TrEMBL record:
UniProt-recorded Gene Ontology molecular function terms: cyclin-dependent protein serine/threonine kinase regulator activity
Family: Belongs to the cyclin family. Cyclin L subfamily.
Organism, scientific name: Hordeum vulgare subsp. vulgare (Domesticated barley)
GO biological process, one term: regulation of transcription by RNA polymerase II
Coiled-coil segments: none
Record-given protein name: Cyclin-L1-1
Segments of skewed composition (Basic and acidic residues): 301-313, 328-367, 375-385
The entry's keywords: Cell cycle, Cell division, Cyclin
Gene for this chain: LOC123401952
Biased composition (Polar residues): 283-295
Presence of keyword Cell cycle: yes
Amino acid sequence: MIYTAIDTFYLTDEQLRDSPSRKDGIDEAAETTLRVYGCDLIQESGILLRLPQAVMATAQVLFHRFYCKKSFARFSAKRVAASCVWLAGKLEESPRRSKHIIFVFHRMECRRENLPIEFLDVFSTKYTELRHDLIRTERHLLKEMGFICHVEHPHKFISNYLATLEAPELTQEAWNLANDSLRTTLCVRFKSEVVACGVVYAAARRHRVPLPEEPPWWTVFDADEAAIQEVCRILAHLYSLPKAQYIPVYKDNDSFSVRRALDTHASKESPASAVASDRGTPVPSSSSQEKNSLTKARREKVKENSDTKDKPLPAELNGKGGQAANSKIERPEPNVDRAEERERSRSRGRDRDIRGRDSDHERERDRAKRHRSRDKSSGYSDKEKSRHRSSRDRAGYYSSGDKDHRHRRH
């Protein structure tokens, strides 16, 4: 039974041995490799997304906790790692957009598996599928955690312990060991205080810094010697392992790239490969088979075209039918005709615009001439008109003033 509380999510050795992955036929070595691989993805993606270390540490702890309840055969390690980064960013108040997380994991997969880096279109069906799966996996994470995602890291205890022991030179080494311990199951087996004591002990042994033993220093921090030795043993085993590679134990396709998804789909649809593998004969890949089929089809088409060209026309087509066929052949392409028609229509429109502009200018000139002729016939020049108008305005002004004066007298 796994008890999940606000600060406790710890398992025993027996519970880890009877994990859901073991029940699905995955051995201990494969499970350890997949755990390390998923944590490597989380750490690398956090660096590319420029996330703080607290987000990456929380995501790795969530990754280990989830696979204590679910199997690697039923949930993809790649997809779960991406969802853990997305959820941890929200928990540690450093959120990132789902689009950026999908792009980062897509690029990491292309680099790790030596695939050509391709552009992942936001409007493609592959991106929509990845985004829906990211949201769905986050729901599974929250459901299995019971929506209790509180995590305590050993990092916050390291600086206090070393300050108490008066060994500040071990801070960086102990911090690095604490980061590496997140790739193991120490976060689900021991409390963060015990892991911090084990990390400090390993750093002191590596740098040969003596620590107080009478009384033992770890008793002050609520830890025992057996747990510290177990922490050191697991860290030593981690450093003895080679670089983790992905093991395809997941039943469905879990690739972030489009080409790998197409290759797996084609391999599933080709039954000839399975039959030949049972017989022991080598089978070419699906891509090579498709290329061979395409080349054969092209050769057949070329042969048919050459045969039709070499054959003479029948006697029935020598008459009217032959003339019709020749007329069809001699006709120009419709695209050329359409282009010529467009150019002609454009030139006609330009000519019309020019003619319209010329006619407008002529009309304005005629109007100006008419006004000039009218002014000459009336006998007044422009200066005389302005004087006449000003005299009228003054008369009106004085007349209005006189009226006001009269009203005031009355």
